[in-house]
Amino acid sequence: MTLNPYSRSEHLRSLWPWLPLWAVVALLAIFAHGPMPLYSTRTLAVAWEMWNQHHWLVPYINGQPYSEKAPLLFWLIHAGWLVFGVGDVWPRVLEVGFGGAELVLISLLARRLFPARPWMAKAAPWTLLALSYAFLFGLQVMYDVLLATWALGALLCLTSTARHAQPRWWLFGLCIGFGLLTKGPVMLLHVLFPWLLGPLWSDWARTHRARWYGCGLLAMLLGLAMLLAWALPAGLAGGEAYMHRLFFSQTAARVIHGVETAEPLQSHARPVLWYVLMLPLLLFPFVGWPRAWVALAALRRPLEPGLRFALCWVLPTFLVFSLVRGKQLYYLLPELAGTVLLLCGAIALLRERRPRLANTGWLGTWPLGVGSLAFALLLFVLPNLVAGNHLHGEWPDACAPYSRYFAVVFLLLGLLLLLRGRGELRRLAVAGLIGTLALNTLFTLTMWPRYELRPTSLLLGAAEQAGHPIGYLGNYEGQFHFQGRLTRPIEELNNNEQLAAFAKAHPDGLVVQHPSKIDPSALRYALLVQPFRSTWLVVWPAATLADLRSGATPPEPIQPPQVYDINGGTARTQP
User: Fold this and answer.
1) Where is 530: in which H helix or E strand?
2) Using one digit for the tens of pLDDT, what is the confidence trace for 390-404?
3) Which part of the chain is the Glycosyltransferase RgtA/B/C/D-like domain (predicted)?
4) Cα–chain center distance at 481
5) Does this model's pTM top 0.90?
6) Which stretches within 485-538 are classed as H helix?
7) By the 8 A CB rule, do 110 and 147 touch?
8) C-alpha 527: how far from its chain's center?
């Protein structure tokens, strides 16, 4: 149905002010510093290698087929590079666009599921944008925000409208297919249970069970066909080992304990209860809002369809992910949207059924306000604590010079959260969003030099252009390829024998080392020394490092190494 001008105006006004506010804050945060290692740098390395080597079908990293992910995100990055040129601006704008689309979709989904509660369509995006972990992870050039967007799009296709009760099965299948092309079979898990349990929340599914399951199965087969349309030719092009990893080991090793693979995989094995323990982090700041927990605890049958939908989505999916061997916090990113629907629906029901409890100040945001004021006090006294040797550490020492400026921010946010009256959820959302932006800014001003890989990347890029082979001691994860615009693989060296062989074969080669502490010999013989997180990166002439490892004394270098300061990140020359 074509929207008339009035209807279009109403839809645009419904996005105000949460979408522009979130877009401005997200753009400020994502461009505050460079791509984050190892999340963003690895994704950009794969996109760069595909682009540079013209591998449009098979993702590659460090000269080898990359079976960990499907190619849709890389293709979208390439589409922007085709128009704007290669750089990291377009991929970051893409991520902001994915996040904005997710907020719009959760608003539409809330409107469909709770047609009698217009408040839900406004409250759901406000709640989702306030989640600190989801916001910060959305600043990474990664696959999961795009995956969450496809999952929300697919679930939106299952819901009914006033004019169209039957699900849009073709669109459901297409969204599943695009999700599969984003991150593989895990997409099915994010949409499976709302479909399987459809008769519990959907009147149409309850009335037309055969069509619901039959058409849903066909839609999923359509999505799988889209994945196979890429995976089969990609597997043939990538070789037998790549095909085996793509179709079996890279998924099975994450799900089942004991599956062995020829190459190491990022399985991220965790205990069953790990997600339960991580819930406070995933749900912050709402974990500190008493009204949210009271509303959830007060839920009683009969529940309206929207709440039943959220429960059918969140609870079984959370259980399955908890049972799966491999776990990362961002695996549950799509389910945070379902949790938001459940939370907002519970609050709406509390207001309707128990208005006195819903409006009491004792259940307000005051615990978060008190916490913000306490944090502001800590930031204010931090320089004195550090100067008086009462508190030391990597973070306190780095943050002390700037902490009092940010103490003012958290003081104001604490006062905002102590206010009472209407608009409590919106105040909490704004405070959560601004507070997360403030922490990201503080990180940029203080800790980012310890994460910035540009000095090493540029040195390696210049060395490769000069014809020097490059090796890496340990497991290399593509962190230098994009920023250094490297075009050849970096050779992994796992022991002294491989290092000696590399130095003998490439006497003019370079080797990157990642030690936990700086050896005095590095400040004498290395080419570059820079901080990286709580450790260091050292770039050596391969022959020099091989001599040192064998006990020999290498010749004196022609020039002293570049040493980057751990606090300011400014290059200086070490005599």
Assistant:
1) strand 528-532
2) 888 889 999 999 999
3) 69-230
4) 20
5) yes
6) 496-505, 522-525
7) no
8) 34
